[in-house]
Amino acid sequence: MSKPDERDKWTRFSEEHEQIRFDDVRRTVLPKTAIDTGKAPYQGTRTIIKRPKWITRSIAEELGREYILLATCYEILIYFAFVVCVCISVMGPHSTYNFYLTKGLHAQFVDKAFNTMNGMEITFSDIHSAGDFWMYLENHFVPSIFWGYTYDPKNVEDENTMNIMFENMILGVPRIRQVKARNDSCEVHDYFLRYFRSCFDTYYSYEADREDFGPGEPTA
């Protein structure tokens, strides 16, 4: 084989190889319709692969580190907006009227002082004996419930005008629900077990005594 023939062979091989490479690149760039018809778009046209508007973490892992950070920022913003919406929905319905009503009732029945049998002034939080509790009910609680009225039918005015703090109407008969801490809610030292068989800690809902108390007769 002569040198011109060998040169022509390598030239044809190179052209075929370049044509194969061009076809591969062309298939990755040109639209499918242009590949099927064999007609290239007009000169100056190029196909642009658009990034989706919304990127999830699984999509970002295929695109690169920059998109992973972008997806993380999107998730943080969405979570922050969710927390704000939850806070507004939870704290929004509360009104100032309910706040002042609760504060007024607490000041009237809990924070206001009353006299015990010994003549001492204490509040509801300072009660430590049954005698102080009954003095609270008789001398403070009942007068606060029936504001400005007595039990004497001759002195009682229209029942529809009965109210608390001259603003809140009484609906029905007031009832008291008793709650009690368990007798084992606090620990007693071994040295004092011979004197104290039970101990009552400060009342909490998780330490409430839920056993039956008294004769067990219904009150309503």
Task: Supply the helix-strand structural class.
Answer: mainly alpha
Low-pLDDT sequence parts: 17-44
SSE order, one letter for each helix or strand: HHHHHEEHEE
Instruction: Report the principal-axis shape.
Output: elongated
Q: Specify the helix fraction band.
A: 40-55%
**Overall number of domains:** 4
Number of extended strands: 4
* Number of continuous helical runs: 6
User: Strand-residue fraction?
Assistant: under 5%
Q: What distance lies between the first and last C-alpha atoms, to the nearest angstrom? A: 120 Å
Give the biggest beta sheet.
2 strands, antiparallel
Global mean pLDDT: 70
The side-by-side strand order for the widest beta sheet comes to 1-2
Alpha carbon gyration radius: 43 Å
